[in-house]
Amino acid sequence: MNLITQQILSENEVLEKLRSKRIGLGYRAMFSSYLGGVVTDPALMQIPIDDHLVHRGHGVFDTCTLGNGHLYRLSIHLDRLLQSAELARIDHPWSKTDLAKIITETASISGVQNGSIRYWLSVGPGGFSPSPAECKEACFYCIVFDPVPLGGASNSKLKGIPEATVRGVPMKPPLLAKIKSNNYLLNVLTHMEAVDLGGTFGILVDDDGYVAESCVLNAAFVDKRGVLRTPPFEGILTGTTIQRCMDLAQKQLIPEGLLTGLEQAPVKASDVTGDQISEMFVCGGDTHIYPVTSWDGIQVGQGKVGSVAQRLIELVEGEADRSVQGDRGDYTKVHYKA
Predict the structure, then answer these.
(1) pLDDT for 229-261, tens place per residue?
(2) Which residues contact 36 (CB under 8 A, 6 or more apart)?
(3) How large is the average pLDDT for residues 272-281?
(4) Which residues are paired to 6 by β-bridges?
(5) CB hemisphere CA count around 1 (13 angstroms)
(6) In this model, does residue 151 exceed pLDDT 70?
(7) What domains lie within the chain, and their CATH numbers?
(8) How far apart are CA 319 and CA 287, in angstroms?
(9) Strand locations in the chain (E)
(10) At what angle do helices 96-110 and 74-87 cross, to 10 degrees?
């Protein structure tokens, strides 16, 4: 009796099925060091199943914004990528300059002026054990894609979002929190529980009652004194967006009179739902700043988008698309092929 019911697919059938399933995804170009070049057909944008990035999470990643033909803050993102790779003990042959060149050339081949670029460093393919000793070569992957709002929160920058405390998902241990690794299961579960509770991304609070971070975003607050406060980076990811927000607060919002000061200091969750905080927002991914108007059903501040969050959104989005001039060193020009 023949028990085999699965069809054995030919090469052409595989490609046909992949192309039918990969239509309209907004993936414009992908570099793979494993293949040694760039592909522009989404059906061919694949990673080997035995790459430890896939089945062990032994890889790190980062993302930067492509705005009006310039890569925004690529340098700081690559610094974090390389630091994460070092902490994850990923040996690889690429320098920061090498990676910047690959990313810039991939953007050029894509022809895209405005989008997002995500890239991964992995110990590479080789088998299914936990040991990277079986991997013959580290791999670098890079993809240019159309930008999409986080978690489907498309209009939330204008209206604000509700948030919820997530208690059913543990915080990452400090080492994993500092590595921007490919293992984001706890982040995903944090977001899912938040949605179940009527929130958006979720807020994690430590055992002492202090705010830690959101699922993929840092949290920031404006207290009643007009001071911008954000939790220290000990035990959470060092966010590049919150760092830029702090820079802009110091350089522009304090002189403009929107803030009186800036502190990186612990924030009690009870202060937020009490009367000590006038504004709250979460931020990440270069331009994703979401004002939080309620937390666990309790109004934050006036329950609307505050002036500090609104101004930071204007500045950060303006810098990314170059309608506002940021620091000169934050831009890498992409030279597109004619």
Answers:
(1) 999 999 898 999 999 999 999 999 999 999 999
(2) none
(3) 88
(4) none
(5) 1
(6) no
(7) 11-147 (3.30.470.10), 151-321 (3.20.10.10)
(8) 9
(9) 27-32, 37-39, 59-67, 70-72, 115-122, 139-145, 161-163, 203-205, 211-214, 218-223, 227-230, 261-264, 277-284, 288-295, 298-299, 331-333
(10) 130
In this prediction, residue 276 carries a pLDDT of 87
The three-class DSSP label of residue 116 is strand
Closest residue by Cα to residue 81 from 172, 181, 217: 181
CB atoms within 10 A of CB 73: 22
251 is catalytic: no
Given a cut of 70, whether residue 1 has pLDDT beyond it is: no
Q: With 0-12 CB in 10 A as exposed, 13-18 as middle and 19+ as buried, what is 10?
A: exposed
Distances (CA, A) of 291 to 161, 200, 265, 296: 6, 11, 20, 15
Identify which of 102, 216, 225 has the alpha carbon closest to the alpha carbon of residue 149.
Answer: 216
Distance of CA 75 to the CA centre of its chain: 15
The answer to whether the beta carbons of residues 291 and 281 sit under 8 Å apart is yes
Q: Which of 130, 217, 220, 204 is nearest to 172 (CA)?
A: 204
Give me the catalytic one of 180, 224, 304, 337: 180
pTM for this predicted structure: 0.93
Q: What is the pLDDT of residue 152?
A: 60
pLDDT tens, position by position, 102-124:
999 999 999 999 999 999 999 99
Using 50, 70 and 90 to split pLDDT, how confident is the model at 337?
A: confident
The size of the chain, in residues, is 338
Structure tokens belonging to residue 276: 């000590």
